[in-house]
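Structure ticket #2291
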Amino acid sequence: MPLSVLTYLNVRNNIIRFYCIIMPIQDKRKYLNELKDKCFQESKIYKKRYRKLKLKDDAIDVITSGMNASVIALTISGFVLPPLLIASASLSGFSFVIQQGQRTYNLKRKYIQHDITIKQYDALAREIISVLHRNHMSGAEYDDFIEQVNDKWSLIDDSRII
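Resolution: structure written out below.
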């Protein structure tokens, strides 16, 4: 995140926090606008990743469902032609391996986590936009809000999957 040159380091409760001081309100608003743009940019990146992971997970689900339906049909047909039972067993084993691979990579948890990250970035951007529309805030109120935004940003960064 971009930080102003006119910042000082304050250590409180063993947590390092940056406070923007001696900055004009216009610069603080510009900084918040940059943070809002960065939120939208990060959200867009995670939306692309979400779509890719969801598409892969859905494709694997469709493939394994088709295989399982084929296994049932081959098993029933195998009573007439016994070699179809061998094909049914091999297809069933292959379907099992694919499902275990899907569980091992845990694509569902990954794309759900990406969705949560998208929602967190969007919520933060909306909050910044709502503050930017206020015209009556003082410099100290902007400082407090920038501190809150930086804290929320770091929480999102800590919880996201890279």
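Closing remark: The chain has a mean pLDDT of 83.
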